[in-house]
Specification:
The protein is of the alpha+beta class. It is built from four helices and nine strands, in the order αβββββββββααα. It is globular, with a radius of gyration of 17 Å. The chain starts with 73 loop residues before the first helix and ends with a helix.
Length: 242
């Protein structure tokens, strides 16, 4: 299967040597899966680069914030560079601004590692090679969805080590503003369509766990409570150090 099952953010249990150089936030193969076909694995002695921006974790209220629209400035271009580097360092394929503590409608996506992960891509009505728009950096998105649904395995950099099957629309039409100020319409499906949906959810304070069936979410309840307690403990330690 071209894309297999993907985790919207990295899986902590997966060795670095099994992850492609550009696989970074919203999805990565399950631990037992080999690297995507055509992509040589990175040697295990390649060091993992440090994160440029700190990623916030489940429990932080910024992840539940409906983000503010963006008026583009030169500062957003520098921010985009930081987000892409952080996304890649974290072994993900997408990252939203609230995941680094900024409640603004901005996100980055990069699925260039697997051009076969979608069946079509149109930009402003024209067929477009995936490489032409990667990495995709956008602000102020508006989405419309097709009628067909698809199930794919997702996770989140802000909810490490947890993953579950999520049902989403198979096709998406996304109206996005790019860094150069152009407003474009992207029509696509597959991994790119899902990554866009996942990141736009973040901009609305929605997490992938919110889209799970009750039985699936119940299985994660203990882990989610643990993460909330860990977040509270980190906050107490920060206050104590002050």
């Amino acid at each position: 299967m071209p894309c297999g099952k993907w985790n919207l953010d990295r899986t902590q249990s997966e060795p670095w040597c099994c992850v492609r150089r550009h696989v970074v936030t919203s999805y990565s193969p399950p631990p037992a899966s080999p690297a995507p076909q055509g992509c040589p694995p990175i040697p295990c002695d390649v060091p993992i680069p440090p994160l440029i921006r700190e990623i916030v974790f489940f429990g932080d209220p910024v992840l539940r914030t409906k983000c503010a629209p963006v008026e583009l400035t030169d500062e957003h271009k520098a921010l985009a560079d930081d987000m892409i580097e952080t996304m890649h360092a974290a072994q993900g394929i997408g990252l939203a601004a609230p995941q680094i503590g900024l409640p603004i409608q901005m996100a980055v996506v990069d699925v260039a590692h697997d051009p076969e992960c979608l069946t079509f891509l149109k930009v402003d009505g024209e067929d477009t090679p995936l490489a032409d728009i990667m990495p995709l950096i956008f602000v102020n998105p508006e989405l419309e969805f097709g009628d067909e649904k698809d199930v794919m395995n997702e996770g989140c950099l802000s909810i490490p080590d947890l993953r579950a099957d999520v049902t989403r629309p198979e096709q998406v039409t996304a109206k996005l503003t790019l860094l150069d100020g152009r407003r474009v319409t992207i029509e696509t499906d597959g991994l790119l369509g899902r990554a866009i949906q996942h990141e736009v959810d973040h901009l609305n304070g929605v997490l992938f766990i919110d889209r799970l069936k009750p039985t699936a979410k119940a299985r994660l309840r203990t882990s989610l409570k643990r993460m909330q307690q860990e977040y509270k403990e980190r906050q107490r330690r920060k206050q104590w150090k002050k």
